[in-house]
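Worked example 3. Consider a protein that binds flavin mononucleotide.
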Amino acid sequence: MEKIWSKTKIGNMELSHRLAMAPMTRSRAQEDGTPGELAALYYAQRATMGLLITEGTQPSDDGQGYLWSPGIYTDKHIKGWKKVTDAVHEAGGYVYIQLMHAGRMSHPDNTPHHRQPVAPSAIAPGVEMFTATGMQDIPVPRELSQEDIQTTISDFRKAAAAAIKAGADGVEIHGANGYLINQFLGENSNTRTDEYGGSIENRVRFAIEVTKAIVEEIGAERTGFRISPGTPLGGIQDGEQGPQLYRYLVKELAQLDLAYLHVMHLGDENLLQDIRSIWQNPLLVNRAGTLDDLSVDLDRGLADVVPVGVWSLANPDLVERLQQGAPLNEADPTTFFGLGSKGYTDYPTLEELKSQEGLH
Ligand SMILES: Cc1cc2nc3c(=O)[nH]c(=O)nc-3n(C[C@H](O)[C@H](O)[C@H](O)COP(=O)(O)O)c2cc1C
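Given these inputs, the predicted complex is written out as structure tokens:
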């Protein structure tokens, strides 16, 4: 456990410990994609996590998948995010905005323009999605033309610039969990026959072009990238070539000298070892596991920083509680998405619990 509490550096950030807050969609933004009124408070409450990676944030109308997810492509979005970044900085934390283009993981009822979702190929993910009228099948997406691909890369670039304008310390490119970039990587979601499909090199091309554009725009030291090898979310199958594809992707990304690589790790230990040896810069490893597992990857030298999701959602003072060995609040999954302050900004800190007890 010792290593968790040691200092480290990521990009321009001096972190006082090795935990971070994992990105989590909370679906509480305003109708137009501006972060909700409580977002600044929610993130600032968790500032002792050091590096906060925000909820997935769309770079364009096309990029929205879920209801009430925030965007970062209008002046109003920038103003809304500025409140968040100011509040986090004031509370002593750092914040990276996660750029998430949902691609085919979307529904016309959920987007501002109500258009058919877009993807590398016209293949539906075969899953349902929550909409204002309940769960609905996700429709077959429209295949992106080569021109659309260039526009999408440019949207990512502009969104990264907007994030920096909004005061973010950097951006994390969401290449994981079944969304657009992951759809290009997947064997069963990308059947293109041009230079963006087919071979490993071709399926990785979009991820690299997006990353290069963002690096050019805001600098490598402010750019992170998230992958989730072997994760079947959103109907994605990596196929037999999966581990090989991820080794190639990580090698290509390594040449760009990014602030960090973030692996959502589901258990291919050999692949994680390989990634560690290819990737010389800071490596973030998030594994959905028990608290006892928190430091395993740090202690084995496989991770430099450990992002934590659900426990940081439910415990604004997670760092203090872990340091003191104090009991933790349990998360309430019924309030993960939507609603207001309930299950968002009302999880008590230890101090608050103590003073509540004192009142009784
Ligand atoms: C409510 C919720 C929302 C999530 N939204 C995102 C997201 O927007 N982007 C992302 O990359 N991962 C997202 N995840 C995955 C988490 O970042 C994390 O990988 C996962 O919860 C496992 O880690 P944990 O056990 O520490 O929570 C989400 C998870 C949860 C529980």
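Take a moment to read the result before moving on. The pocket of flavin mononucleotide is lined by residues 22-25, 55-56, 98, 100, 174, 176-177, 226, 264, 286, 288, 308-310, 336 (CB under 6 Å). Residues 30 and 82 are 15 Å apart (CA to CA).
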